[in-house]
Amino acid sequence: MNSIEIKQDFIINEKKTKIISGAVHYFRIVEEYWGYALDCLKEVGCNTVETYIPWNYHEMYEGDFDFESYGHDLIKFIKEAEKRNLFVILRPSPYICAEWEFGGLPFWLLEKNCKIRSSDPLFIEYVERYFDILLPKLKEYQWTENGPVIMMQLENEYGSYGNDKEYLSEILRIMKKYIDVPIFTSDGSWKEALTAGSLLEKSVFPTGNFGSNAIKNVKNLVEFMEENKIEAPIMCMEFWDGWFNRWDEEIIRRDPQELKSAVEEMYNLGSLNLYMFQGGTNFGFMNGCSARGTNDLHQITSYDYDAVLTEWGDKTEKFHLLQSLFSNEVKSEVTKSHTKKAFKRVKYIGAASLFENLETVSRVSKNKWPLSMEKLGQGYGYIAYKSNIGPKRHLEKVRVIEASDRAKIYVNNKEIATQYKKEIGTELSVDLSREEDNELIILMENMGRVNYGSKLLAPTQRKGIRGGVMLDLHFHSEWTHYCIDVEKSTQLNYENFTGIGPSFYKFELFVDEPADTFVDCRGWGKGCLLVNGFNLGRFWEVGPTGYLYLPAPLLKAGVNEIIVFETEGKFNNELKFSKEPIYIEIGEKR
Predict the structure, then answer these.
(1) How far is CA 291 from the centre of its chain?
(2) What contacts 216, CB < 8 A, 6 or more positions away?
(3) 422 - beta bridge partners?
(4) Chain centre to alpha carbon of residue 495
(5) Are strands 295-298 and 289-292 parallel, antiparallel or unpaired?
(6) Are 366 and 480 in contact (CB under 8 A)?
(7) Which is deepest, 278, 287, 368, 508, by most CB within 10 Å?
(8) What is the mean pLDDT of the chain?
(9) What is the pLDDT of residue 201?
(10) Looking at 99, 101, 238, 568, which residue is catalytic?
(11) Are 465 and 402 in contact (CB under 8 A)?
(12) Measuring CA to CA, which residue among 487, 299, 477 is closest to residue 381?
């Protein structure tokens, strides 16, 4: 039977072991490429892989657990690591941050009247129900049961959010029903955060998160452990080797040589986990959002992170520098980068207006007042709110009250305004031209919920229209809600396109042999793109990225269906591909 002990070092099977780990998120990489990323991890000199487990990825809708569909098979990922004799660190904490939508928390919790990340019995009830499904699946893969999983995380950077020790104890209680391997916390390495986020009396050991100044940060961690009489290894659970990026901001890069020096400093002091080894992609609508003061700054689809491997798996200069640090011998290259092509054989099939097809692509409901996304059971993407606002007249004031994140306002299918957080609530003056039955449509987009900090509790994490719509000085009633499912766009008739406005554009891509490629998103405004029904994620002309990465496994030999949902009314009958990523120079800010 395997053993692991937490002393001044990690003692694995009675042998002192330094953990050299890299973060690979199975949910951000197509599953056909999991093995490649893990091979590269071995090649660089790591002995461990670390991954978060996002709750909202596996229970997106309440009670609907998914651990088997494409990309969701966590056990398959663990087995791929085991094949390569890699240790595995799992971070199944209810909250993960990770620049992921709502920090991994399911959107439906917002309708449950419970205080998240606390000992609120209702929140604990939902966590326990989820863990009672998840943790039994992991039990047999623990190191103590001859599997590869050597440790698991209790909570993530809780010291930067709360200090509810009863909450941490409850999470530990649930985990201990199934988990025998060591359990840790990870926090910023300053005393206040370590104190608030730890659970020391329960033999849960602390680790630190930082990306530089290792000597100083480790000193703080050591002093904290000495003060609290903790015997545990020194480990940086997240050594940040790059950073994430947001729309309308320049790409953040880190100098490879400087990184090597910073990593070497940490490597000489203890164990570490490189965050990220390969960042991957925020497919679909799962990008998170930064909160800075009163601003919400939504993150881009690419989670390249300027990591050791690129978003698409190429080795960077950082890879070779770290390999020289971690490996005692020069290794010949084992893994080869994925083949890339700029496909040319693309046929434009046609377009279909959103407004003319709302019934087909939506789940429809009516209510006296506009309802939020969460009340409608729509976690992500778009909702169109439609109402008859009466006969011909001049309306001096039209206002959307309390809504997030982006409102596109139309009267009789003509765009009147686009409003973001700062503009929502601003009065609009509108002339209604029809003698009767003028139609108001408000297309709301959830651009991603906050993933870190106090704003997890903010009303703005409830998306769509929370308040209402005012005409003159009164709230207008009688609304039809269209909860849009972009995947239903495959059912549309793409002939006889009659207008511009939010629309779906259909293309057929012919492929002799699948290869990685990059969709050139320049010329499109804002929206998302589906390949054979798979949502690659969001694009936006503000940059800094002008591409969507398309992995080869999502393509097939022959004809591939590509549908672009574009909300800005920028008609485009061309779809181009590139062998390399495309970046957009950041211009004037909105």
Answers:
(1) 15
(2) none
(3) none
(4) 35
(5) antiparallel
(6) yes
(7) 278
(8) 96
(9) 78
(10) 238
(11) yes
(12) 487
* Average of per-residue pLDDT across 190-207: 94
Residues 6+ apart with CB under 8 A from 490: 530, 533, 561, 563
pTM to 2 decimal places:
0.97
Which of the 8 DSSP states describes residue 553?
G
Cα angle 95-130-380, degrees, rounded to a multiple of 5: 60
* Closest by Cα among 110, 221, 235, 115 to 159: 221
DSSP 504-538: EEEEEEEESS--BEEEE-TT--EEEEEETTEEEEE
- Reported in sequence order, the residue ranges of 405-546 that DSSP labels E, i.e. its strands, are 406-411, 414-419, 428-432, 439-446, 464-471, 474-475, 479-484, 503-511, 517-520, 526-531, 534-540
Amino acid at 167: Y
pLDDT at 329 over 80: no
Nearest one of 453, 450, 471, 452 to 404, comparing CA atoms: 450
How far apart CA 37 and CA 248 sit, in angstroms, is: 29
Pairwise CA distance, residues 331 & 309, whole Å: 17
Spatial separation of the C-alpha atoms in residues 266 and 187, rounded to whole Å: 16
Domains in the chain, start-ordered, CATH in brackets? 4-326 (3.20.20.80), 369-477 (2.60.120.260), 492-578 (2.60.120.260)
Other beta carbons within 10 angstroms of residue 552's beta carbon come to: 19
CA 181/CA 4 separation, integer angstroms: 7
Helix (H) and strand (E) counts for the chain?
10, 31
CA 13: distance to chain centroid?
36
Going through 211-267 in order, the beta strands assigned E by DSSP cover 235-240
CA 152 to chain CA mean position, Å: 21
Residues β-bridged to residue 403: 465
Comparing CA positions, the residue from 453, 448, 479, 78 lying closest to residue 299 is: 448
- Over residues 241-284, the pLDDT tens digits come to 999 999 999 999 999 999 999 999 999 999 999 999 999 999 99
For residue 484, what are its two tokens?
């849009």
Amino acid, single-letter form, for residue 301:
T
Question: Which distant-in-sequence residues (6+ apart) come within 8 Å of 19 by Cβ?
Answer: 10, 47, 48, 87, 89, 150, 233, 235, 271, 272, 273
Residue 157 catalytic? Answer: yes
Q: Give tens-digit pLDDT for 41-85.
A: 999 999 999 999 999 999 999 999 999 999 999 999 999 999 999
> pLDDT, tens digit, for every residue of 453-478?
999 988 889 999 999 999 999 999 99
The CA distance from 314 to 343, in Å, is: 19
* Phi, psi (deg, nearest 5) at residue 155: -150, 165
Q: CA-CA distance, 107 to 450, in Å (whole number)?
A: 11
Contacts of 2 (CB under 8 A, 6+ apart): 12, 13, 143, 144, 145, 146
Establish whether 238 is a catalytic residue: yes
Instruction: Please tell me which residue in 59, 80, 101, 157 is annotated as part of the active site.
Output: 157
- Write out the two tokens for 222: 């050591």
Q: Which helix (H) or strand (E) holds 83?
A: helix 74-83
Buried b / exposed e over 404-438, threshold 16 CB at 10 Å, is bbbbbbbbbeebbbebebeebeeebebebeeeeeb
Q: Enter the tokens of residue 290.
A: 């930064």
